[in-house]
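Protein data:
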Amino acid sequence: MLLAQPGRIGPLALKNRVVMAPMGTNYSTTDGLSTERDKFYYAERARGGVAMIMTEAMVVTEHARPHHNSLCCYHDRFIPGLAGLVEVIKRHGAHVCGQLNHRGALLRRSVLNMEPVGPSPWHNPNTGDVVRPLAIEEIVAIQKLFVAAARRLRQAGYDGVEIHAGNGYLLQQFLTPRINQRDDRYGGSFDNRARFLLETIARLKDELTDFPLIVRLSASEFVAGSYTQDEIVELARRLQTAGVAALDISGGTNESPQLSKYCIQPPSYRAAVSPPIRSRSSKR
């Protein structure tokens, strides 16, 4: 069976082709520190025989926390706890990769008073919260925060890092013309809309040259006015040229229940389903 055969992601030799996807647990402390429950959860999955575990999405800044009990990686104080996770996972022969994310416009003021930010003025469709557009200096600062967080993962013993650029979060918000209405070098053309992500990847490759890098993308948002299939294919080519070891392909966006079902398809979906693109109204 193909799943049982060895595989490879960049320099990482995998004992089989089963990789555990990043799934939120809310097992951490309210300060974002790893707990014994975290360790037990991941150790059990590693013991089950997966070749690599992708730990849950971790935020790169204290100003972008999505939940009260989610893992964090925005300060060096998180390194010892993450190193403990790595140790229990590797004890059972699995590689470990960490996913880094910034929710941007999908942050909630009702959760730890997080301010929704994005490429342009908008409203979070889930909450109605006003989204503040990021200044260019803030964009550059967030790129550097991704690099700093990835460096902490490497210090903790992680084997690689995944940058979350799909499912409706900040990097995807810049990519989609539905939301990105900027008229500077980070908006308008495809080259400009992809700039935030590609510059982030370039910074990561420059500073962490030997650290395998994966990027998660939504191949389609399944909504009218999004980026095109040709654009996402071109983005994938550019990421490969930039030295990305693998792409983690998803779909949809978590900005609404109607679209989030394309991120994690329910069992009622038949295999290889291709939902039609539906138009929808959104607050601007």
Notes: The CA atoms of residues 142 and 227 lie 23 Å apart. The chain has eight helices and eleven strands. The mean pLDDT is 92.
